[in-house]
Records
---
Amino acid sequence: MTTPEDRPVTRLFDAETIARRVDELAIAIAATLPSEFTLVGLLKGAFVFTADLVRALDRAGMRPRVEFLQVSSYGLGTESSGTVKVIGEMPSSIEGCPVLLVDDIQDTGRTLLFTRDLLLQHGAARVWTCALLDKPSRRVVDIQPDFVGFEIPDLFVVGYGIDWAERFRHLPWIGTVEG
Ligand code: IMP
Ligand code: MG
């Protein structure tokens, strides 16, 4: 059996590169969204990105409320299972609010599409989407994030909050797992 521990991780984006891009994203978001909005981060993968993004947004003059939502599309493997489900509570304070939905990676697009529609059904006034990483070649549903940090090819990546079977979330940088 192959475990995550067996695989070397090759660095793709170092911490400084990520930090610079997060600042640029915050400036782009500040130029587009109203200064008061609700940021909804998707757990667990976007927890590190969300923490850095809200502080970059503060530097850009924004005052987001912060909520988290946990949804699941992957089991413990590296392939999307094709269905998305909500785990836990919906944020209560989104009715009538502009929302920025934040995820770590946009892959097939199912998670962002499902979650955006869910937030609209729960009364969000408008939903913008932001993904730190985007794998456009993997898309199976029609959704393009409004804000993207980095486009990447079809690689399985870990670090900066992103896991493989719950490992590697702690890495301050993003790397690709070699097969
Ligand atoms: P989608 O619904 O297929 O777009 O998948 C999005 C979710 O799959 C992300 O929130 C990630 O949690 C997970 N995911 C997609 N690609 C990767 C990857 O390369 N490494 C780790 N998780 C990934
Ligand atoms: Mg995720």
---
Amino acid sequence: MPNTILIGAQWGDEGKGKIIDVLTEGADWVVRAQGGNNAGHTVEVGEERFVLHLVPSGILHDGKRCVIGNGVVLDPVALVEEIRGVMDRGFSVEGRLFISDRAHVVFPYHRMLDAQGEACKAKDDQIGTTQRGIGPAYSDKAARFGLRMGDLIDPSFPEVLRSRIEDKNRALSALGAPTVEFAEILAATQEAMAVLAPLVCDTVPLLHDAVRAGDTMLFEGAQGIMLDIDFGTYPFVTSSNAGSGGAATGSGVPPNRMDRVVGVLKAYTTRVGEGPFPTELFDADGEELRRVGREFGATTGRPRRCGWFDAVVARHAVMTCGVDEWALTKLDVLDGFETLKICTAYELDGRLIDHVPANVRQLARCTPIYEEMPGWQTSTQGITRYEELPAAAQRYIARLEAVSGAPVAILSLGPRRDETIFREPRA
Ligand code: GDP
Ligand code: IMO
Ligand code: MG
């Protein structure tokens, strides 16, 4: 397998965890390069269901090695809990999980500032974050005030933390929020570091040597391009580059070592949290997508907003991430629909546009232009060959390819590994 970047091509929760899991077979390394435990990646192996937040999904394949790169923000206490959960279910991390010493740390004060920041905003400005402290941790990184994993294993850590906490407590007090206890945070962090310290290293030479030796890399994107801090629906986004560029800056593996970009695309659209979503449905079809697709957040349990497939969004992913091929997921969720709609363009203030406007107020005014297609109204469960799909399903996929501008190479018809169809490359 070529070195592959896998990204979410919508607003997250496209099924990246499942696709990473099936692609891990062909990779030596699985690398997370951005985001934090705001992510929730679900993998079903046999009867077992795993939800991973920080640990790369490749950990569920014995012998594969996983890296949490410099671009990730990492809550040490949450990570230890997750590692214990994975180990309890029979997977080892020793010699298999490596954590960048450059990865920034999420502390409890980041979580409190996240919650407080949201509470202080006017209703229309609230983002609906996962409240995992992601925004405040990346803010500290950009403000050059963050602490990195390497700082936590340095003898100076207690003193540096004390001074940070004094500063953060002033900020929390000014917001009228409760303050945090230095001794408590120090003890919890040191306890977590007793587990994590052996896994922390400089992952740049590690990955460099692996690439030189011919090992193959799979980069596990978190969130999706519409939540990317630059190309998403700013400010209703997360705080990292969820697009393919983030894989390089967040790992130290340079762009000219990357060979292929796979975009994970749901056969319809979902979004959790606030912000514009042109094809959102508020009717029985939206309810049906949520019910059949089990669209409830893997991290926060919130119901996901659901809507029709949006090709304007898919094209935005192709342009900004260089998507070579799609992994199209959850096609099975559409099995019962009589009619399907595909949004091919927007109408904005009386004009037709074919791209995502940068301004979020403009995007909120966009109304979708739809094409309608007949559904197939038969179960696709158990189908293992593309040619066996109902003709209407094949036509739907062909239309998505035509209007999105990239081919569907992987098709997912269920959460399990064996519910996946790999298509032969076409001319
Ligand atoms: P991620 O954040 O992109 O990894 O996606 P999530 O794990 O948050 O959400 C995707 C959900 O859809 C999970 O519950 C998966 O088990 C499930 N899933 C993935 N692929 C398919 C599929 O092809 N069909 C169905 N029905 N469910 C799927
Ligand atoms: P995965 O990797 C879906 C959303 C939040 C909120 C916004 C900002 O599972 O696809 P944050 O906590 O990051 O500051 O929240 O981004 N969000 C996600 N939505 N899937 C995710 O990750 C998400 N991670 C963050 O709901 O709207
Ligand atoms: Mg998710």
